[in-house]
Design brief:
Radius of gyration: 24 Å
Oligomer: single chain
Helix content: over 70%
Structural class: mainly alpha
Shape: globular
Order of helices and strands: HHHHHHHHHHHHHHH
Distance between the termini: 45 Å
């Protein structure tokens, strides 16, 4: 090996070491969560942490799924998340098309407001949203939670889809219109299929945001406990099971599973969508 490649390798060692440390710090909590969910209770309660247990069990997962209300709260989270994602995609697609394909007065101001809404902290909206929901008698309703999550995810969805639409040549639609398609038909048949990576990327972002959100769900669902979502239920899970950390970690693992599965299924298109949304338009 020549001296030059050796120097290059040695220069990269500190950066690689830092990357490995960051990777380990990021992965270890997930590893410990899953391991705790699979370890027997004796290993969990042992004074010395057990990193490599000799036996594994699914008992804690059975305790989690049979807990009171687990499947009801799972359904609530799924309904709210799916409603939020679908609403955001439909509205954002129309807004992104208007911004990317049309020229109208106030377009730049609209885009600026969308960017401002995207960078604004969600926590600043907690009190205003509670006051509005209280005064309009919209507390303790999954519909209210869906609309709040829709509002949170909409700016990002508009920005990402606008970038994708800007990257697709408008000449493709014009050629379809010359062949006899209406503007709507040209968009549906030509442009819409090319938006698949962007739609999947924004859908995953909206899904993760709504699925994991805790603050609004905890504040807007107060009296009707049957309409709670999984994050709120999970926060009180340890009170139900006392010191049963195995069941708590099993419930946490099941809670994270849908996002992981969805990301693995859509991984390639999501990577394309994130890259396109970051560098285009």
């Amino acid at each position: 090996m020549s001296a030059r490649p050796v120097r290059v390798v040695l220069r990269g060692l500190p950066l690689n070491a830092v990357a490995l440390v960051v990777f380990g710090l990021s992965v270890f909590p997930v590893y410990w969560m899953i391991l705790t969910a699979l370890k027997p209770t004796a290993d969990i309660q042992a004074e010395t942490p057990v990193f490599l247990p000799t036996s594994l069990t699914l008992e804690h997962f059975s305790d989690a799924v049979t807990a009171d209300g687990f499947w009801s709260f799972w359904r609530n989270s799924l309904l709210v998340t799916a409603g939020c994602v679908l609403l955001a995609l439909v509205v954002a697609l129309g807004a992104a098309f208007a911004v990317a394909r049309m020229r109208w007065k106030g377009r730049r101001g609209f885009v600026l407001m969308v960017f401002v809404a995207q960078v604004a902290p969600w926590e600043a909206l907690l009190i205003p949203m509670y006051v509005i929901a209280r005064d309009t008698d919209m507390l303790d309703r999954l519909t209210t939670l869906t609309l709040v999550y829709f509002m949170i995810t909409l700016p990002f969805t508009i920005v990402t889809l606008r970038s994708f639409l800007s990257a697709i040549p408008a000449e493709l639609e014009e050629a379809a219109q010359v062949d006899g398609c209406t503007r709507a038909a040209a968009f549906r048949r030509v442009t819409f299929p090319l938006l698949a990576p962007g739609l999947l990327a924004t859908s995953l972002f909206g899904f993760i945001t709504a699925w994991n959100e805790f603050a609004f769900a905890n504040m807007l669902i107060i009296k009707n406990q049957d309409d709670r979502t999984l994050p709120v239920w999970l926060s009180s899970f340890s009170n139900v099971f006392g010191t049963d950390w195995g069941a708590t970690m099993a419930a946490s693992t099941l809670f994270a599973l849908p996002v992981l599965v969805l990301f693995l299924v859509l991984q390639r298109r999501v990577a394309t969508g994130m890259t396109g949304g970051a560098v285009k338009g």
